[in-house]
Amino acid sequence: CDDDHDSLGIRCEIWDTLDIRSGVYDLLTLRNGVDTLLGSGFIANGKIERIKVTLGSNNSVMVDSVVYPLQILNNQSFVFINIHKEHLDVINSNNFRLYLDFNLARSIKLFGGKYWLKPVLKPFGKHSSGEIEGKVRPVHSFGTIKAFNDADTVFARPEDEGEFKIRGLREGTYSLFIDGINGYQDTTITNISVRRGKETELETIRLHQ
Fold first, then answer.
1. Helix count (H) and strand count (E) of the chain?
2. Which residues have CB under 8 Å from 142's CB, separation 6+?
3. Can you give the pTM of this predicted structure?
4. Rounded distance between C-alpha atoms, residue 170 and residue 125, angstroms
5. Which of 156, 153, 161, 132 shows the shortest CA–CA distance to 145?
6. pLDDT in tens, 91-110
7. Residue closest to 155 by CA, chosen among 32, 13, 21, 18
8. Measured between alpha carbons, how far apart are the two ends of the chain, in Å?
9. Are 168 and 89 contacting, i.e. CB atoms less than 8 angstroms apart?
C-alpha cells in the first residue's frame, strides 16, 4: 500500500500472488529449527499488510500409527495473516523474508469422531523474536514441550535424541514445561529470559522417575 495514497485517505489495496511450491508437507519434519521455502516472488513497492494462505484438501493426521483424514473445519480452506513491520527480516534493501509458524497443537481438534483442521499460523521475523533451545535426557522420557508466559504459549516436540528449538518467541520471561512419559515425572523450568534476535541455550534437562 502506497503511503502517499494512505495520507490522502484513499484505501490502497493490491493483491498479488507469489510463486508457491504446492504439494503435501509433513509438518512434523518442520520443527526444532527446520524450515522450508513455501513461496517467493516480486511484489510492488509498498506496505505488506496481509497474507492469504490457501490449503488443499489432501490433509491427514497420524495417531498411534493410524492415518486419519483431516477435514478442514467449515470448509474454510484459507487463512488470513496480518503482517507488521517487525515480522519481516530485511536481507537487503529490496529483499525481505517472513517466517510462518504452523501451530499444530491449536490447529487440530477431535470431535464427532473426526479430526478437524482450523489452521493457526503465526508470522515472525528472526530479528524481532527470540529462541529457546536445549535437550532433554534420558531418551524416551519426554513428550511435548511448552514454553509459556502471560502473553504467549508455544509448543514443541523434541527430536528422538531430545534436542529441541522453539522459535518466534516474543521478548520476555518464559517458563518451560516438559511432559514426562514412560514413568518419568513432568518438569517445569522457570525464569527463562528471551531477547529479540537472541538464542537462549539451556543446560541439559534431566527428567526423573
1. 2, 19
2. 136, 158, 162, 178, 179, 180, 181, 184, 207
3. 0.85
4. 10
5. 156
6. 887 899 999 999 998 999 99
7. 32
8. 57
9. no
